[in-house]
Design goal:
Elements lengths: L13 H6 L3 E7 L20 H14 L6 E5 L2 H11 L7 E4 L22 H21 L5 E6 L1 H11 L17 E6 L5 E8 L10
Parallel strand pairs: 1-4, 2-3, 2-4
Antiparallel strand pairs: 1-5, 5-6
Helix pairs in contact: 2-3
Length: 210
């Protein structure tokens, strides 16, 4: 009786399956704070307004079924208070606050002529270094298939997203980032990044969008 060799097909391992998945980053902008925090020259750290607390509560309910592998937040109160509202539903999720997620100037994504340049070059370099540190932290400390929560500031989110995709922020299309909004970015191991959801505020009532 003639026998035939049976060729075995390669079965994907769990590690290989994970490598085929992206690292998903859920960016959340903090809820409304009591002061106009766009003035970066003011060294204030305001808490959330009453509206901001309602925004954070609705945001937390919207994200309660998500499964986060890790959560990060800027050290500013408007971010930590927003993050703590979300983490009431994710008590076992590892959480860290970092100054690398502090707000940055818009100079990183909008070209400002030198004649009216509002920020000193040294400060811009420090901000860029901080964003690069955090981007590298995401790439090296987390693996494909995980979902990471990042609670931060509008300009920081606008600048960091293209950096995670290997691009200069000034080359990217700008998007609005409302208070308590959700933005989802998938980052692949080959360096590609895909924006899955941008500035979503469907969890807020019309009068609550700020």
């Amino acid at each position: 009786m003639k026998r035939y060799a049976v060729k075995k097909t390669d079965q994907p391992t769990e590690s290989r399956k994970r490598q085929e998945l992206p690292l998903s980053v859920c960016f959340v902008r903090h809820a409304q704070a009591t002061e106009d925090t766009r003035d970066l020259s003011r060294m204030e750290d305001p808490p959330l307004t009453a509206l901001g607390r309602r925004q954070a509560t609705r945001l937390a309910r919207r994200l309660q079924t998500e499964r986060f592998s890790h959560a990060y937040a800027s050290v500013m109160r408007r971010c930590t208070e927003t993050a703590h509202a979300i983490l009431k539903f994710h008590r076992h999720t590892p959480y860290a606050e970092t100054r690398d997620l502090m707000e940055v100037g818009r100079d990183h994504f909008i070209h400002v002529p030198k004649a009216c340049h509002p920020s000193c070059p040294a400060m811009l370099e420090q901000e860029k270094d901080a964003m690069n540190r955090f981007a590298n932290r995401l790439r090296h400390e987390h693996r494909p298939g995980q979902k990471i929560l990042v609670v931060a500031h509008g300009n920081l989110i606008r600048s960091l997203m293209p950096m995670l995709g290997g691009k200069d922020a000034r080359e990217s299309i700008l998007i609005e980032i409302e208070n308590a909004s959700v933005t989802m970015l998938d980052v692949w191991s080959n360096g590609a990044a895909i924006l899955k959801l941008a500035n979503c505020v469907r969890h807020l009532l019309p009068g609550e969008v700020t």
